[in-house]
Amino acid sequence: MSYIVEGDNGTMFEVTITDAAGPVDLTTATTIKARFIRANFSTFEKSLAVVDAVKGKCSVDMTSEDVVVAGKYSFQVNVAFSSGSRFSSDIHRFVVNPKL
């Protein structure tokens, strides 16, 4: 993960969605969204873009409004597939550092 400071704009995360067998094939994904929890327990949701569907890779760009609070953040990616099935990733964590 990148070194993030509160209020940063344009930080990009690349995430690989995996299950016990390895990368989840996102070829038939209809929506991919991440639910974030900030250090102050407020939440927000962002859509992710597919980078490599077969390898389960996707990315999300963070804005200054997303990282307004310094501290520990967590997020989980939720995928909906055209078949109607859904998948939730493991929980990921990162730190937003305070401005000096």
Structure description:
The chain has 100 residues and is mainly beta. The chain has one domain (4-97): Immunoglobulin-like (Sandwich). 0% of the residues lie in helices and 57% in strands. The strands form three sheets. It has a five-stranded mixed beta sheet with strand order 1-10-9-5-6, with no helix packed on it. Strands 2-8-7 form a three-stranded antiparallel beta sheet, with no helix packed on it. The chain has a two-stranded antiparallel ribbon with strand order 3-4. The model has no long low-confidence stretch (mean pLDDT 95).
Strand order of the largest sheet: 1-10-9-5-6
- CATH architectural type: Sandwich
Instruction: Estimate nothing, just give the exact number of structural domains.
Output: 1
Mean pLDDT: 95
Low-confidence sequence ranges: none
Helix content, binned percent: under 10%
**DSSP strand content:** over 45%
**N-to-C order of helices and strands:** EEEEEEEEEE
Biggest pleated-sheet summary: 5 strands, mixed
Number of alpha- plus pi-helical segments: 0
The CATH topology assignment is Immunoglobulin-like
The rounded distance between the terminal residues' Cα atoms is: 20 Å
The CATH class designation is: Mainly Beta
Report the structural category. mainly beta
| Count of distinct strands | 10
Shape: elongated
User: If you compute it from the alpha carbons, what radius of gyration comes out, rounded to the nearest whole angstrom?
Assistant: 14 Å
